[in-house]
């Protein structure tokens, strides 16, 4: 696989050659998870429309749901203004988090609570 040169040129990768991928539910806009992508993962995602990421621990590509069945059908991919993050809007089947929860951000721990009337 090879990422299109014009797309590749827009990306700013970290020292490991990766970009952050923020994944949101297409219907609700809930943030489901954050993962890392290299060029091959992004190209596979664009080609197959299945969320494909780079596993830093295993040092290999992984397709979300390949073993669990909790697949992501990718509806849209956007690049942020800096070119260092992509946003994926997906239809998620089953839990998105490896812990079995709907999202990786649904714990009851919050670093900052919203204040009523906050700007």
Question: Please, could you describe this protein's structure?
Answer:
This protein is α+β, with helices and mostly antiparallel strands and 119 residues long. It is 13% helix and 32% strand. It has helices at 5-10, 39-48, and strands at residues 19-25, 31-37, 52-55, 60-63, 72-79, 85-92. The strands form 2 sheets. Strands 2-1-6-5 form a 4-stranded mixed sheet, with helices on one face. A two-stranded antiparallel sheet has the order 3-4. A hairpin with a 4-residue loop joins β3 (52-55) and β4. The longest helix has 10 residues, at 39-48.
Helix/strand layout:
Elements: H1 5-10, E1 19-25, E2 31-37, H2 39-48, E3 52-55, E4 60-63, E5 72-79, E6 85-92
Parallel strand pairs: 1-6
Antiparallel strand pairs: 1-2, 3-4, 5-6
CA(first)-CA(last) distance = 45 Å
Report helical residue fraction: 10-25%
Low-pLDDT residue spans: none
Q: What is the average of the pLDDT values?
A: 91
Strand content: 25-35%
What order do the SSEs take from the amino end to the carboxyl end, as H and E?
Answer: HEEHEEEE
Q: What structural class results from the helix and strand content?
A: alpha+beta
Radius of gyration: 15 Å
């Amino acid at each position: 696989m090879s990422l299109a040169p014009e797309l590749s040129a827009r990306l700013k990768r970290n020292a490991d050659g990766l970009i952050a991928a923020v994944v949101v539910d297409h219907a609700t806009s809930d943030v489901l998870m954050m993962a890392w992508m290299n060029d091959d993962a992004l190209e596979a995602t664009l080609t197959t429309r299945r969320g494909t990421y780079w596993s830093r621990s295993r040092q290999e590509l992984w397709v979300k749901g390949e073993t669990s069945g909790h697949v992501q059908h990718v509806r849209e991919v956007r690049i942020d203004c800096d070119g260092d993050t992509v946003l994926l809007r997906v239809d998620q089947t089953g839990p998105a988090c490896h812990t079995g929860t709907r999202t990786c951000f649904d714990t009851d721990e919050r670093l900052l609570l919203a204040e009523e009337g906050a700007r």
